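Need a sequence for this fold. Nothing fancy.
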């Protein structure tokens, strides 16, 4: 889910069914989605539009919200503070649903593992030591 949108607005049941049946999302919807999530990090890393479309199709077709209740181990939700793709609201929703610890990596977006690898690794290690 990207900032300012909830999961129902982002991936309607019809859109998920379309992806499962046809293997791809509606091109108009994908274009709108990509215009909202594409940022300098994707462009700097040379992520192609085709790669982004493939990723979008996978995300839409994969809805694991019903399985979250089966997770019985400690969970760390870690995201970039400026994440345009999932946004803080979604991170908070996940953390609440999973009774998880939440960490925001400052001065970065969705790609915090590549833009802030040291800080991301340190936060993971801290969590594992708890």
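Here you go.
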């Amino acid at each position: 889910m990207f900032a300012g949108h909830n999961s129902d607005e982002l991936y309607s049941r019809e859109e998920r069914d379309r992806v499962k049946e046809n293997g791809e999302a509606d091109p108009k919807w994908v274009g709108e989605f990509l215009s909202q999530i594409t940022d300098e990090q994707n462009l700097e890393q040379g992520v192609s539009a085709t790669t982004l479309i493939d990723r979008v199709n996978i995300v839409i077709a994969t809805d694991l919200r019903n399985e979250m209740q089966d997770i019985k181990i400690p969970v760390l939700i870690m995201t970039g503070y400026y994440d345009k793709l999932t946004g803080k609201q979604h991170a908070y929703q996940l953390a609440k649903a999973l009774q998880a610890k939440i960490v925001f990596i400052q001065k970065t977006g969705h790609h915090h593992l590549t833009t802030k690898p040291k800080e991301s690794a340190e936060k993971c290690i801290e969590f594992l030591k708890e």
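For context: Residues 1-9 have pLDDT under 50 and may be disordered.
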